[in-house]
Amino acid sequence: MKMDDRKFMILQAIIDDYIMTAVPVGSRTISRKQGVGFSPATIRNEMSDLEELGYLAQPHTSAGRIPSAKAYRLYVDRLMKMVDLSAEETGRIQDHLNKRTAQVEEVIRQAAQALSDVTHYTAVVSGPQMAGVSIKRVQMVPVTETSALLVIVTGAGLVRERVIQVPEGVGPDQLYGLSKVLTERLAGCSPQEAREQLTNVTADLGEHRQLMASVLGVIDSQLGGDENVPLVVGGRSNLLHYPEYSDVEKARSFLAVLESREKLAPLLKGSDLEFTVRIGPEINMPEFSDCSVVTATYHVGENTSGTMGIIGPTRMDYARVVSVMNYMGRAISDLLSGVKE
Amino acid sequence: MKMDDRKFMILQAIIDDYIMTAVPVGSRTISRKQGVGFSPATIRNEMSDLEELGYLAQPHTSAGRIPSAKAYRLYVDRLMKMVDLSAEETGRIQDHLNKRTAQVEEVIRQAAQALSDVTHYTAVVSGPQMAGVSIKRVQMVPVTETSALLVIVTGAGLVRERVIQVPEGVGPDQLYGLSKVLTERLAGCSPQEAREQLTNVTADLGEHRQLMASVLGVIDSQLGGDENVPLVVGGRSNLLHYPEYSDVEKARSFLAVLESREKLAPLLKGSDLEFTVRIGPEINMPEFSDCSVVTATYHVGENTSGTMGIIGPTRMDYARVVSVMNYMGRAISDLLSGVKE
DNA sequence: GTTAGCACTCGACCTTTGAGAGTGCTAACA
DNA sequence: TGTTAGCACTCTCAAAGGTCGAGTGCTAAC
What we know:
2 copies of one chain form a homodimer. By secondary structure, chain A is of the alpha+beta class. Helices cover 46% and strands 18% of the residues of chain A. The first copy, chain A, has helices at residues 5-21, 27-32, 40-52, 69-79, 87-97, 104-119, 172-186, 191-205, 209-223, 248-259, 261-268, 318-336; strands spanning 56-57, 66-67, 122-126, 135-144, 147-154, 159-165, 231-234, 275-279, 291-300, 304-313. A 5-stranded antiparallel beta sheet of chain A has the order 7-3-10-9-8, with helices on both faces. The first copy, chain A, starts with a helix and ends in a 5-residue tail after the last helix. Chain A binds chain B through residues 101-103, 137, 139, 141-144, 146-147, 149, 151, 153, 157, 159, 161-163, 176, 234-237, 240-241, 245-248, 251-253, 255-256, 258-259, 338, and chain B through 101-103, 137, 139, 141-144, 146-147, 149, 151, 153, 157, 159, 161-163, 176, 234-237, 240-241, 245-248, 251-253, 255-256, 258-259, 338. The first copy, chain A, binds a DNA duplex through residues 24, 26-28, 38-42, 44-45, 47-48, 58-64.
């Protein structure tokens, strides 16, 4: 048995209906739809075929059909059409973003808020990945007698900062001098190159061994892996609107995942494509077995990029979600690259 | 009718039992308890009195009694005894905090995590309130041609930073010079004094009017009110463990409050006391009508302090919560004041 | 290939019923 | 006079049974 145009059409109608209602779809419902010129009996035959092909499932004998993960896969890959956002939607997004700021944490917080607000799903946004980045400037600002704020500026104009310990007796002017040396030596370096350069610097300077070790530690931790990129979640409570989460225990374990960076981070990874859709079982996490995750990449400058994701029920409105993220990707890039409106 | 020792004792027993089980407490249950030498019938008479006095309520005729908000109030004010934390509990807290860092965001995040983890309730921790603070140092670090990171260090050794716009043509050295002037002029100032000083500085410098306006803007927003102090929540999913939140809609509106800074911030305010307990209706928020909030203050240096809060069901284990927060208050102070272990 | 008709299935919802927990009241007891 | 045993009463909860309606698969006719 093969798929034909009519089967595609019926499947699409079922998915569309189920996305809206979350109720198993019966043959009569489809037959009544505009543009479907067949009786319920005919639809039933086709539905029976679609079930055999693995696209539909029946919760129990006398219920309607619900789309399987395979059906959503087909829908996302072949049936889905991009939609245009309404002026009201883009307006809502811009309202969240209209603060003029290039502060990474703030931008991604606003982005997560906007995404969850517009889609009514849960949004996760990570800060820009610093792995392939180049260093532009390193500067220490004195804080107390024994500590300073180490500020690292990247080529793309992103900033990371961190308090480090400073040996007693190293004064503000000395810190400024050291900062100049560090900036000269490290400018243009990748984090890996910086590590080598720093050992040279340490050798040259002789003293300040411990301080340089702290600097290296920060570069490693802040520009190294992605354990330290900020990660914010928005709209945690949104999913509890959906009947999929009318069971508190399910809701709780879902929320628990959102609270665990270790479990959450992998959801945003796994693909460098512009968009990635993972559906239910494809995610491979029991807590998310009837969730889908749509992730997208945003770019800042040449080499820097971050990820955002939307988590919703498998029956989520993929077309709209992809459109919203598409729009948001450009918006974040503009904000973080300092583009003026 | 008046309260007597026996009534207190019975009320305490009922509260203790209800805190553990969340099930209405019957006369037999109390009568069976160690140290209570009375039959269920006697207890029943006393319970009937306690109900008349407003300390107990009956969900329905043939159920046991549950404590009223008034009973918890009495419990917190008069009956509660501080408990000692077990080594296991202090250990768990230290495990969350053992990263050596004086980074405010990180410390309060860890604190919220630790509090929620140890108490199994939901925790909210705010960063130190900057209102009464004095400025110690102001420094700008160049980021791009047209932006810089403005770093403000306070007397207590706390740091706030923010990206500001810089007019084209102002180079790194000039920014450093300006930073020196700013630090000289503003050192020791309160935010209010800084505002006046800055207008002087602007007058003296002539140019850089716009830059100074940006600096002032940051001082106002970062050290001014408390709209900009960081606020982190830990253990959002914890409350869903309790039968009070077995209703999804209730859980959802609870979570929605946690997502709204405007609704959440007032919960941490309202009292300068070391500890404040607000019970159910005292909170005056429908979403929290059967929650209690315990808040406590922590101090950094002389003039700087922040707030933490625990949100749990009204039948929460107040004694333990207060003890945990007491311990945590000292731990946060130590971390943020840079005290070494 | 399409459709009408029909018997069949199964969950949703309602009602009934019985068990259990807990109460208030009364009368007896120390 | 305070305490307690006994008992009738109330109310929730869970299980059991019954009805309704939506939806199916199959067959036969168009």
